[in-house]
Design goal:
Radius of gyration: 30 Å
Number of strands: 43
Length: about 950
């Protein structure tokens, strides 16, 4: 062995000491300060009942009786002077609650917090980096879990760091005078040492006294801990993502389980209640976590239904050896396991958890089962007024008399959450959590607390259509509370089998997908598997709502074609799904007997408004949505001609008399008059990019739309020194809509129709402005309309909108602060269309792995935080599939010419149909090629750009 001198190690320790010393002087730690109550934290909108006040006083007494005046800390368990950083976070949350619920006065609050922070500021840190895993609460010494002093310490827990940083955020929000002090504490900690490869890492000391960094956190707690880091500017993108996980069926419910199990990682992958409860009351249950929480509650109810045993499981201290257990829904391959942290089973000590029962009840106050478990524990208080017991043993039915800061702190947090009107405690959480009960079948994959809206309308705003498609100004519907019942799905028969279905489309591929591209294609197709209605063949536009528009169904049909062409699905699956969708299209009730309505419930197939409310007579039609469907149906005929007769029959059932008028596309809306009458109004479509796309689709079917097709003069605005189009210059209408410029319709047009010279003159400055913004600011930009899982639910991240560059707008035209997203779909599309462009390559690199392998690609990520925008739509996943197909077809337009010898053209030739069909059996557009590539083109004026703003 070669002797290695110790100097590098010595120098490293000296460097760490000097850095710590420098930071001690750099960050000023203030002398005691007094809080002021001038913020929203004191806004109690739903005061506690007298009974709830009793709960709160009882829980607070735990901290009164376990307070250590020398340090300002509290005991983690009754009478035992020990505590972790997690326990300290519990106490800070409890202390904040006590102040706003008037359990303590301002002087006591300030005295307690000043003492706590003074001690915390001077704690000895493990390796001078981060707080030790555990301290003596009475002396603030580093100790082991037996409360024995340790000079070096045990290491640190990244999850505990995340917990206390979440508590710090609540304190600085509710008591801003302490902000600088808290910032100074965090600045002294070497937080970066607990982050590696986008994940959270704890530290432990090996038997040879070396320090080992170990990845911390499993599904639920890992995301919670990462959120705490994120509040203070520390990013852990892999930790905050849900992957890797799998679904395990327990009592008939598909439960999300971390796929990193004990056998392979020596860490437990337990599923418990507390992580979801904490996320709900502090951050607000959103997106997939809301769905996961609903499943975790539902499976506990189902265990009760099956066994009669009330079930609310989570980790808890117990009042006998081994003193701490994880009561789980699932852990390490076993359902309903009760284990130690070393995976030793103790099923005889499984218990009904007090804190879990409180949490589920206040997160879902209308849920009958949550009420039942709450009733079982709400009076489980110590007779000597020392706080709430931890729970009730299932086997003996006796109280688990462990008294802990965790149980009592969480109860206080929960009651404060209730008093705030079920508003999350963390300031950055912008929406309240729905109080609706979880679905009776949480395994369906639909979160029960999502707004009941096909397109997620904003309050007091025009209703929206699903992300990545345009909307039209219509009467604002009144959104109803989320309907958590499961309506009976209407069964629709597929159309009869077609003659000689083809094993593949007649679209010729230039090359095969690479292994990476195939992985992306399979991930995008997962959306259409996860959101498929097997009884009627429809697909939900959004994963969080049971509704569809004709635009969304057009997306699905385009995705079907792409998936079959890429060999992502089999010929049999393509044929079955296609025939089923065509069968459903024949059953959709038509508005006024003319055209499909704007939106439908995907279970009942009945028309609904954009608020998800029944609209028995329909709510008008969208010419833009019709255009999307007509483009998809035309290409189905082109690439899969065996379906031609069925397609023509569908489109010949529709009447086009009012949608195509004098060369312009028009849409119908329904308005309610003051006298209660509902009136239909038909107005021209003028959405930039969308009008041009839809017009080209109608031209494929022979409609003359020279005044809506791309062409004429366009008004522009200067963005990043480029003339970006903002609207068509026209005198044929005075219709007003919220004008904005986004990428979606232009990249979809380019993928399907190619870039004719007129469209290219619009497309290029739109792309170049985004690339220039990135060059100037370093901010990745893929401006698009996207869905998110919170208000305003649909965000237009514009290139220019309402006269302002780079503004994020809701459908009501109001700015959405920090709401801009980088669109996954648009990034894929730009990379497909401009593969040699360095900026489009950077966009692709930033978004390619932004997917959930079970549900599909996310909408994107927020520009300001890099946080994933939770939301899944047919539009995003369809565009990704189309982009991948475009890559392997030598970048030819995806829509191909079809035969003119079909029922549609024969009917047009006959004339006098009474349905507003084209006057002549001639396509108004044709596929052509030149040195710039292939594209569909029609005759018309050249495009002129007119500089100026509205």
């Amino acid at each position: 062995m070669i002797y290695k001198p110790p100097q590098p190690k010595l120098l490293r320790w000296i460097a760490l000491f000097l850095i710590g010393t420098f930071l001690q002087f750099l960050f000023y730690i203030p002398t005691p300060v007094l809080s002021q109550n001038s913020n929203s934290c004191s806004n109690i909108t739903t005061p506690l009942t007298s009974e709830e006040q009793t709960y709160a006083r009882a829980a607070w007494q735990y901290f009164v009786k376990n307070y250590q005046p020398a340090t300002g800390f509290t005991n983690s368990t009754g009478g035992y002077p020990s505590g972790t950083l997690w326990d300290m976070g519990n106490y800070l949350m409890a202390l904040n609650t006590a102040r706003w619920l008037n359990l303590t006065d301002q002087a006591d609050f300030d005295s307690r917090l000043n003492k706590f922070l003074t001690t915390l500021s001077s704690l000895k840190l493990f390796e001078d980096a981060l707080p030790n895993k555990v301290y003596n609460a009475a002396t603030a010494q580093m100790v082991d879990y037996g409360n024995n002093p340790l000079e070096r310490g045990l290491g640190w827990s990244a999850l505990d760091v995340g917990r206390i940083m979440a508590a710090f955020d609540v304190i600085r929000t509710c008591h801003p005078q302490y902000n600088d002090w808290l910032k100074g504490i965090i600045a002294k900690w070497q937080v970066a040492r607990s982050l590696k490869d986008g994940q959270l890492f704890g530290a432990t000391v090996l038997p040879d006294n070396k320090t080992l960094l170990v990845q911390e956190g499993r599904l639920g707690y890992e995301e919670y801990g990462a959120r705490g880091y994120q509040l203070w500017g520390f990013s852990a993108p892999k930790a905050i993502a849900l992957e890797p996980f799998k679904l395990v069926e327990i009592n008939g419910v598909q439960i999300p389980v971390d796929s990193r199990d004990f056998q392979s990682t020596n860490a437990n992958n337990y599923v418990v209640s507390e992580s979801y409860i904490l996320d709900g009351i502090e951050f607000g249950l959103q997106g997939e976590l809301a769905d996961f929480a609903a499943r975790v509650l539902d499976v506990q109810k189902r265990r009760f239904d099956t066994t009669g045993q009330l079930t609310a499981v989570t980790e808890d201290n117990i009042d006998q050896a081994p003193y701490f257990l994880y009561n789980t829904v699932y852990a390490n391959g076993t359902n309903w396991a009760t284990i130690t942290d070393t995976n030793q089973p103790y099923p005889q000590f499984r218990s009904l958890s007090t804190k879990a029962a409180f949490g589920w009840h206040y997160l879902f106050p209308e849920n009958a089962y949550a009420q039942k478990v709450f009733d079982a524990v709400k009076d489980l208080r110590s007779p000597d007024d020392s706080g709430y017991y931890a729970g009730i043993y299932e086997e003996s039915k006796q109280p688990n008399k462990a008294l802990t800061g965790n149980t009592n702190g969480l109860i206080l947090e929960i009651l404060y959450y209730k008093a705030r009107g079920n508003h999350p405690l963390i300031a950055s959480a912008s929406t309240s959590v729905s109080t609706s009960k979880p679905s009776e079948n949480a395994s369906s994959g639909t979160s029960s607390n999502q707004p009941n809206s096909t397109g997620k309308p904003s309050e007091n705003a025009s209703p929206t259509t699903p992300a990545n498609q345009p909307n039209s100004t219509v009467t604002t519907p009144t959104a109803t509370p989320a309907d958590t019942s499961k309506p009976t799905e209407v069964a629709v028969a597929p159309i009869p089998p077609v003659d000689s279905p083809q094993s593949s489309s007649n679209l010729k591929l230039d090359r095969s997908l690479t292994p990476v591209e195939r992985r992306y294609a399979e991930a995008a197709w997962r959306y259409f598997q996860a959101n498929y209605h097997a009884k009627n063949g429809l697909i939900d536009d959004r994963s969080d709502f049971k509704g569809a528009t004709l635009w969304g169904l057009g997306d699905y049909l385009a995705a079907l074609h792409a998936a079959r062409s890429l060999d992502t699905i089999t010929p049999k699956e393509f044929d079955q799904r296609t025939r089923h969708l065509l069968g459903a299209l024949t059953k959709l009730p038509l508005f006024a007997g003319e055209l499909p309505s704007r939106s439908y419930d995907t279970r009942s197939l009945q028309p609904v408004d954009y608020g998800g409310n029944p609209a028995p007579e329909g709510n008008g039609w969208s010419a833009l949505d019709l255009g999307r469907m007509l483009a998809a149906l035309y290409n189905l005929k082109s690439c899969h001609p065996e379906y031609t007769a069925a397609v023509d029959k569908i489109v010949l059932d529709w009447s086009y008399l009012r949608v195509v008028r004098e060369g312009i596309l028009s849409s119908a809306t329904v308005t309610r008059e003051e006298d209660g009458r509902y009136l239909t109004r038909v107005n021209p479509e003028i959405r930039l990019g969308y009008e041009e796309y839809a017009a080209r689709a109608f031209q494929l079917w022979g409609f003359n739309l020279d005044r809506s097709a791309v062409g004429g003069e366009y008004q522009t605005a200067s963005v990043e020194g480029l003339k970006v189009p903002i609207q068509r210059h026209r005198t044929d209408t005075n219709s007003k809509v919220n004008q904005y410029t986004v990428s979606n319709p232009f990249v979809l047009y380019a993928l399907e129709f190619g870039l004719d010279p007129k469209m290219r003159s619009l497309f290029e400055p739109i792309f170049q402005a985004q690339a220039e913004r990135y060059r100037r600011t370093g901010t990745l930009t893929a401006s698009a309309t996207t869905s998110i899982d919170r208000k305003p639910y649909t965000v237009h991240s514009t290139i220019t909108g309402q006269g302002e560059s780079w503004v994020a707008l809701g459908d009501d035209g109001q700015p959405v602060p920090k709401g801009r997203l980088v669109s996954t779909a648009v990034a894929f599309a730009y990379n497909a269309l401009l593969p040699d462009n360095k900026y489009s390559q950077q966009l692709q690199e930033g978004t390619t792995d932004l997917y959930n392998p079970l549900i599909g690609f996310y909408e994107g990520f927020y520009e300001t935080t890099g946080k994933t925008a939770v939301g899944f739509t047919s539009s995003t996943n369809s565009m990704i599939l189309q982009s991948l197909l475009y890559n392997v077809t030598n970048r030819q337009p995806l829509i191909r010419p079809t035969t003119m010898n079909s029922l549609w053209w024969q009917t047009v030739t006959k004339g006098n149909s009474g349905r507003g069909l084209p006057n002549t059996a001639i396509q108004q557009t044709k596929l052509t090629s030149d040195s710039s590539g292939s594209y569909w083109v029609s005759d018309g004026e050249k495009t002129h750009l007119v500089t100026g703003t509205k």
